[in-house]
Design the sequence.
C-alpha cells in the first residue's frame, strides 16, 4: 500500500492470475508492509483486536441461530443455548467473555497509543477512526447486554435510555422513539437485537479504514520517531506476524481461563433473574468496561450535567491530538508528563472502582467517617478532565524533553529502544 | 478540466451569470433532497410507538382494594403505578413541608385529582412509581423522609412522592387519571 510493489509471481498460474486479478500481489504487498523494527508487545493488540472482532462475529452469528428476541422467550432461549444446544455451553460464554476480552484489549491498545503519542501528526485521523470504533463497540456492548433479558439487562437498558429523556424539550419524545413505546419492552428488545447484529459490521468497516490509515502513515513506535532508512524497518510478515502470533497465544490462554473456569466472573448474578419491570435490583451496575463512565455520571448531583460530563469524557478523546501540544510523541522522553499519564491511568482504575460501588459508601476510612465513593469519584473525574486540559496543552509548552535518538536503528543498537 | 472551462465560457460568456445548466443542477439536487427526505421519513417514523402499543395505554384501577398503610403496584405502559393508602401521619408530614424549600415546588393537594363530588381524597395517592432520575423503581416507606427511596442512585422522596434529596430532578409523576365511579379510576 505504500511504495512500489515488490511482488514477483513465480509460477505460470500466479502470472496468469496476477495479470487478471492481482489479489496475491495485493496481499503480499500488504503483509510486507515496512514496520518499525523496535515495536514491543504493546503493539500486538491491533492483531489481538482483529481476532476479537472475528471471534465475536462468528460466535454471534451462531448464537443468533438459537436466540429469540422476544420478551417472553429471550431469557429462556439464552438458558436453552447454555443447557441444551450442542456446544452452546461453550459458544455463549465465548461470546459473553469475548466482549470483555475485546474491551480489555481495546483499553490496552488505547493507553498504548496515549503513552507513545500515536495520535499525533500525521496520525490524528487514525486515532479518530479508532475512537469511532471504540464508540461503536460501546454501543454494541450495551445493546448485546440487553439481549439475555435478565434483570441487569432490563434495568441497564432503562437507565441508559433514560439519558435521552434528560435532554431538554425533545427528551421524552426522543426516548419513546428509541424505545418504541412508553418504556423498555418488546419493541425495544427487537430493535436492539437488529442493531446489535448490524453494528459489528460497521465496526469491521471502520477497522478497514483504521488499517488503511495505519498502512498509509506507518506505525508509530515506542520511541516515537519516524523510520528514516531501510534499516529502521522490518517487513510485517514474518517478523510481526510471528510476534503477534505469540501474543495472541498468551491472550487466548487468558481468554480460555475465563471461558472454561470463570465464565460468569465478569457478569452479574442478577442477570440470571428474568427481567421484571416491577422490581429494580437493589444495586444496578453496568458491565465492568463502562464503570469509569458510570462513576463520572454519578459524580455530579445534577442529572443533565452528569450525562453531559459522561459523554464529554468520551468526546474529549476525539480532540486529544490537538490538546497535546508537545512535538515529542513518546512519553519515554517526557519525564514529567509521563507521571501525569501514570496518574491518569490510576485515576481511570479508581473511577472504575467507584462505578462499581454505592456512592454513599466509605471508600477511604478516616477515623469514624472518611471519604465516600462519591467524593473519590469527584476527585478522579476532575483529574480525568484536567489531564486533557490544562495538563497536556501546558506541559507541551513548558516541559523540557529528553534528547531524541538520531534514528530507530541507533536506538536499537545502543539498547535504548 | 480546461476543456470544461472552455465549454462553459463558450456557452456562458459572462462567468457570474447562472446558466441553464446551473438551474438544472439545482433543480435535480432539490428534487433528490425532497425524494430522499420522503423516503427517510417512514424509515425513521417506524421506530415510534406502534398503534397497539399506544392503544394499550390506559387501564382501570379499583382503589377499594387498598387498605390503610398498603401500597398497590399496577403495571401501566410498562411502568408501575403506585396506589398508596397514606396514614394520617404521612399526610400531616406531607402538609407540614415548606414548599419554598422544595426542588420541584408543589403542594401536597396539587398531587391529587378530584373525585366526581369535586373533593380530593388525600389518603389515596396515585403516582407513577418511577424515579425521575433514570427510571428505577423506588422502594416504599424508606429514605430520609418516610416516603420512597431509589436504590439506584440514592434519591429520597417524601410521603407525597416529592423529590427531597439526591440526583433526581423532579417529583414522581402524577399520571393523568379520572374517577369513573366512587372507587374506580381510569389511568391514561
Sequence:
Amino acid at each position: 500500500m505504500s511504495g512500489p510493489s515488490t511482488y514477483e509471481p513465480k509460477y505460470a498460474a500466479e502470472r496468469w492470475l496476477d495479470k487478471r486479478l492481482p489479489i496475491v500481489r495485493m496481499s503480499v504487498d500488504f503483509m510486507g508492509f515496512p514496520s518499525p523494527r523496535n515495536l514491543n508487545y504493546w503493539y500486538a493488540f491491533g492483531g489481538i483486536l482483529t481476532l476479537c472482532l472475528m471471534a465475536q462475529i462468528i460466535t454471534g452469528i451462531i448464537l443468533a441461530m438459537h436466540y429469540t428476541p422476544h420478551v417472553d422467550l429471550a431469557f429462556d432461549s439464552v438458558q436453552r443455548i447454555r443447557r441444551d444446544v450442542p456446544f452452546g455451553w461453550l459458544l455463549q460464554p465465548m461470546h459473553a467473555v469475548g466482549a470483555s476480552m475485546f474491551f480489555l484489549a481495546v483499553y490496552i491498545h488505547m493507553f498504548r497509543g496515549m503513552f507513545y503519542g500515536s495520535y499525533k501528526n500525521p496520525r490524528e485521523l487514525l486515532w479518530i477512526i479508532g475512537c469511532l470504533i471504540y464508540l461503536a463497540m460501546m454501543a454494541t456492548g450495551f445493546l448485546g447486554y440487553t439481549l439475555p433479558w435478565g434483570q441487569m439487562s432490563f434495568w441497564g437498558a432503562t437507565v441508559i435510555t433514560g439519558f435521552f429523556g434528560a435532554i431538554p424539550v425533545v427528551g421524552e419524545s426522543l426516548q419513546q422513539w428509541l424505545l418504541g413505546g412508553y418504556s423498555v419492552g418488546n419493541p425495544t428488545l427487537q430493535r436492539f437485537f437488529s442493531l446489535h447484529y448490524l453494528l459489528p459490521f460497521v465496526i469491521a468497516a471502520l477497522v478497514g479504514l483504521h488499517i488503511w490509515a495505519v498502512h498509509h502513515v506507518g506505525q508509530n513506535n515506542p520511541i516515537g520517531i519516524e523510520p528514516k532508512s531501510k534499516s529502521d524497518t522490518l517487513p510485517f510478515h514474518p517478523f510481526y506476524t510471528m510476534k503477534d502470533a505469540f501474543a495472541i497465544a498468551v491472550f487466548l490462554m487468558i481468554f480460555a481461563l475465563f471461558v472454561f473456569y470463570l465464565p460468569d466472573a465478569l457478569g452479574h448474578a442478577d442477570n440470571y433473574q428474568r427481567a421484571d419491570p416491577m422490581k429494580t435490583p437493589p444495586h444496578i451496575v453496568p458491565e465492568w468496561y463502562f464503570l469509569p463512565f458510570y462513576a463520572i455520571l454519578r459524580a455530579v448531583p445534577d442529572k443533565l450535567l452528569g450525562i453531559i460530563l459522561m459523554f464529554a469524557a468520551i468526546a474529549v478523546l476525539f480532540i486529544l491530538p490537538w490538546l497535546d501540544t508537545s512535538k515529542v510523541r513518546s512519553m519515554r522522553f517526557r519525564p514529567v508528563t509521563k507521571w501525569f499519564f501514570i496518574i491518569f491511568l490510576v485515576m481511570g482504575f479508581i473511577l472504575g472502582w467507584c462505578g462499581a460501588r454505592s456512592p454513599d459508601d466509605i471508600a477511604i476510612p478516616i477515623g469514624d467517617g472518611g471519604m465516600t465513593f462519591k467524593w473519590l469519584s469527584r476527585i478522579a473525574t476532575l483529574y480525568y478532565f484536567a489531564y486533557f486540559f490544562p495538563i497536556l496543552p501546558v506541559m507541551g509548552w513548558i516541559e523540557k524533553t529528553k534528547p531524541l535518538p538520531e534514528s530507530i536503528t541507533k536506538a536499537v543498537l545502543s539498547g535504548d529502544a | 478540466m480546461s476543456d470544461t472551462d472552455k465549454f462553459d465560457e463558450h456557452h456562458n460568456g459572462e462567468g457570474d451569470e447562472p446558466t441553464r445548466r446551473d438551474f438544472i443542477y439545482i433543480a435535480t439536487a432539490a428534487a433528490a433532497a425532497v425524494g430522499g427526505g420522503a423516503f427517510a421519513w417512514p424509515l425513521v417514523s417506524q421506530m415510534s410507538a406502534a398503534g397497539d402499543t399506544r392503544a394499550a395505554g390506559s387501564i382501570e384501577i379499583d382503589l377499594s382494594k387498598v387498605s390503610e398503610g398498603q401500597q398497590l403496584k399496577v403495571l401501566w405502559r410498562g411502568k408501575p403505578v403506585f396506589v398508596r393508602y397514606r396514614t394520617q401521619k404521612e399526610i400531616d408530614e406531607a402538609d407540614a413541608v415548606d414548599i419554598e424549600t422544595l426542588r420541584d415546588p408543589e403542594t401536597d393537594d396539587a398531587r391529587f385529582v378530584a373525585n366526581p363530588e369535586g373533593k380530593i381524597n388525600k389518603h389515596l395517592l396515585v403516582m407513577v412509581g418511577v424515579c425521575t432520575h433514570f427510571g428505577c423503581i423506588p422502594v416504599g416507606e424508606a429514605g430520609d423522609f418516610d416516603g420512597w427511596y431509589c436504590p439506584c442512585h440514592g434519591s429520597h422522596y417524601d410521603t407525597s412522592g416529592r423529590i427531597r434529596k439526591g440526583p433526581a430532578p423532579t417529583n414522581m409523576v402524577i399520571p393523568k387519571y379520572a374517577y369513573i365511579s366512587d372507587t374506580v379510576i381510569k389511568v391514561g
